[in-house]
Amino acid sequence: MKKLRLLAIMLSLVLNGCVQANALPETPAPTSPSSVQAPAILSSPSPTQPPASIELAETPLPTPAASSDSGGICRNPYYPVVDGASWVYEVQDLPQVVHTMSIEEEGSFKIAMVDANSAAVLEGRCTEQGIVLMDMGMGGNFFSEDGSSSVDSQYSEGVTLPNDLRVGSEWSQVSGIQAQGDDDETTLDARIVTNYVVTGEETITVPAGTFTALRIEQNGSLTLQGQEILTQGILWYARGVGNVRSETGMAGGERFVSVLVSYNIP
């Protein structure tokens, strides 16, 4: 149960702010919103076994053959959905992580996140309203040193990033997830609520370059077994590139800064 609880917290932060899973320090099970943090949860694109050592510089992850943009529904200007696109991020002193995209059918896609020691895959979908990560019926596969876990989305309302994004835009996403460990028959249900507002446009310089980006402030909560854990952060999205910087974490706690190091969008 402890492992699933920590997995739910990690997933909440990943969905809300694109922070690396292994960016979060280790701590015991949650006790209060102001003191909760999550441990290093590792993850993998493989549904059956964790990855071996991965050399990011050569090949972050095999990209399966996939269709193109499924009739043009994937047209968010701040979230490119392109088969084979990749982004390299750095979080403080942690290993660089490569996000690689593969397009599936009917406007759905997968994001494989791989660093030197771990990997994960999350599913997303393009809709007429915008990009939705972990839409209803979607999920992810995760691995830790203690074993593997899987997550399935039970319901989803709203979008992660609207198509008509502009200064002043406000929106919310509500997701219900269920986590299941491979060595634990117990399932864990969690509810993730995130509220977003675009507060302005800023010039952001990161290792990948200098970008004009929308600044998006977010605050949210993870309700787990009747306990509410608060999250907050700031995200910067550049047109045609995607997320170039993020600062995310638990409300009142340390924020983890992720910056774009390089990217390749075919």
Structure description:
The chain is mainly beta. It has 1 helix and 14 strands. The chain has one helix spanning 2-17, and strands at residues 86-91, 97-103, 108-114, 119-126, 130-133, 139-144, 147-158, 161-162, 170-181, 184-206, 209-224, 227-238, 242-250, 256-264. Strands 1-2-3-4-6-7-9-10-11-12-13-14 form a 12-stranded antiparallel beta barrel.
Which helices and strands occur, and which strands form pairs?
Elements lengths: L1 H16 L68 E6 L5 E7 L4 E7 L4 E8 L3 E4 L5 E6 L2 E12 L2 E2 L7 E12 L2 E23 L2 E16 L2 E12 L3 E9 L5 E9 L2
Antiparallel strand pairs: 1-2, 1-14, 2-3, 3-4, 4-5, 4-6, 5-8, 6-7, 7-9, 9-10, 10-11, 11-12, 12-13, 13-14
Largest sheet: 12 strands, antiparallel, barrel
Question: How many structural domains?
Answer: 1
User: What is the CATH third-level topology name?
Assistant: YmcC-like fold
Mass-distribution shape: globular
Poorly predicted runs of 5 or more residues: 21-71
- Tell me which CATH architecture applies here: Beta Barrel
Arithmetic mean pLDDT: 76
Strand runs, count: 14
* Series of secondary-structure elements, N-terminal to C-terminal: HEEEEEEEEEEEEEE
Rounded to an integer, what's the Rg over CA atoms? Answer: 17 Å
Q: Provide the spatial order of strands within the biggest beta sheet.
A: 1-2-3-4-6-7-9-10-11-12-13-14
**Estimated structural class:** mainly beta
Q: Helix proportion of residues, in percent?
A: under 10%
Tally of contiguous helical segments: 1
